[in-house]
Design goal:
With 296 residues, this protein is an alpha+beta fold. The chain folds into 2 domains: 8-30 and 37-196, Sandwich (Immunoglobulin-like), CATH 2.60.40; 245-287. The protein is 27% helix and 29% strand. It has helices spanning 8-24, 229-242, 246-295; strands at 51-56, 61-63, 69-77, 83-94, 104-110, 115-118, 121-123, 129-132, 143-145, 150-159, 166-178, 181-187, 191-196. A hairpin with a 4-residue loop joins strand 5 and strand 6. The longest helix is centred in the last third of the chain and has 50 residues, at 246-295. Residues 1-29 form the signal peptide.
Length: 296
C-alpha cells in the first residue's frame, strides 16, 4: 500500500497522473510477458516514503512577465536498492484559486540529454495545477536514484504577464512508473512564494529634434533664449575662456588713441591760451612806449 500523507484531492489526482504516465507511453515500448517485472522502490507495505524530496534555491517572489527563475529538487533514496523510473509530479496552487496552466511556464533539466524539457500542466477541480516531469513525447525515461544517494533536478519557473498576483505554493511528489501502473514514493516540502507586478522600467528620454537647435545653441538663464543679462554674462564667460587676445589688443589700441587725442587737445589748449596772453600784452607795451616818448 502507498503512504497517505497528502490532502485527499491532491493524492487522488497524483495517482491518476501515475496511471497517465503509463498510458502516454507508446504501445511498442510496453514490456512483453517475457520481460522481468519492474523493480520496486522501497518496501511496498512500509509506512514511510523511500524517496525524500526537498525543494531549495527558489526566490521569494516572481514578476509577472519576468525572467524565469531556477530552483532545485533533491531526490534522496533512503533504501538499499536503486530507485529507477522516478517521475516527479509538480503541484502549484494559489490562495485565490485563480492560477491557470496558461499562466505558468515550468521546465526541468534532463542531464542525460543536456536539455530543458517543458512540463505540461493540467487544472484540477480543486484549482490545482499539476504536471508530470517527463509526461511529453520526449523519450525521457525518468530519474534513477542510487541507493542511499541523491539526484538533483533543476527546475525553471516563470509566470506570464496575465498571471494573477498573490501567494502560490509549490509541491513536488515523486512517482515511480511501473509498467502500466505507478506508485507514489516521495513528497517534498512546500515552497511558498509571491507573484507580483513587473517592475516599472524607467522612461527613455525622447531624442532631440534634428531640425531644432541643440542645447549648446540655446543659452540658458533667467531670460531664456531671448537674451538679456544672462547672454551678456555667458558672452563674457565665453570670451574669458576662449583665450583670444585680439579683442584685448584692440581695446589697448583704442585706449592709447584716446589718450593721445586727449594729450593733443591739452597741448592745443595751452598753445591757444599762450597766444591770447601774448596778444593781450602787445597793446599794453605799445601804449607804454608812446607814453614814454611823450614825456621826453
Amino acid at each position: 500500500m502507498c503512504p497517505t500523507r497528502a490532502p485527499r484531492p491532491v493524492r487522488r489526482f497524483l495517482l491518476a497522473c501515475a496511471a497517465l504516465l503509463a498510458c502516454a507511453t507508446p504501445a511498442a515500448a510496453a514490456p512483453s510477458p517475457a520481460d522481468p517485472p519492474s523493480q520496486r522502490c522501497g518496501d511496498p507495505v512500509g509506512s514511510e516514503f523511500p524517496i525524500t524530496s526537498r525543494l531549495s534555491g527558489g526566490p521569494g517572489a516572481y514578476e509577472r512577465g519576468g525572467t524565469p527563475h531556477t530552483w532545485r529538487l533533491e531526490l534522496h533514496n533512503d533504501t538499499d536498492g536503486e530507485c529507477r523510473s522516478i517521475h516527479p509530479v509538480a503541484v502549484l496552487a494559489d490562495k485565490r484559486r485563480a492560477l491557470q496552466p496558461g499562466h505558468v511556464h515550468l521546465d526541468f533539466y534532463d542531464q542525460s540529454g543536456s536539455r530543458w524539457l517543458p512540463v505540461r500542466l493540467e487544472h484540477t477541480d480543486e484549482a490545482e495545477n499539476v504536471g508530470v516531469l517527463g509526461d511529453t513525447p520526449s523519450g525521457f525515461p525518468g530519474f534513477a536514484v542510487p541507493p542511499h544517494g541523491f539526484v538533483t533536478v533543476q527546475l525553471r519557473l516563470g509566470f506570464t504577464a496575465g498571471a494573477p498576483e498573490g501567494a502560490v505554493t509549490a509541491n513536488v511528489t515523486a512517482v515511480q512508473k511501473r509498467g502500466a501502473d505507478g506508485a507514489w514514493v516521495g513528497e517534498s516540502d512546500d515552497y511558498t512564494f509571491a507573484v507580483g507586478p513587473a517592475r516599472a522600467t524607467p522612461a527613455s528620454s525622447s531624442p532631440s529634434d534634428p531640425s531644432g537647435p541643440s542645447a549648446a545653441d540655446v543659452p540658458s538663464g533667467p531670460y531664456g533664449p531671448s537674451g538679456g543679462p544672462a547672454d551678456a554674462a555667458a558672452a563674457s564667460s565665453a570670451l574669458a575662456d576662449s583665450g583670444d587676445e585680439r579683442p584685448v589688443l584692440a581695446m589697448g589700441l583704442v585706449a592709447w588713441a584716446l589718450l593721445a587725442a586727449g594729450a593733443a587737445l591739452l597741448i592745443g589748449a595751452r598753445l591757444a591760451r599762450g597766444r591770447l596772453l601774448e596778444a593781450a600784452e602787445a597793446p599794453a607795451e605799445d601804449d607804454e612806449e608812446r607814453h614814454t616818448g611823450t614825456e621826453r
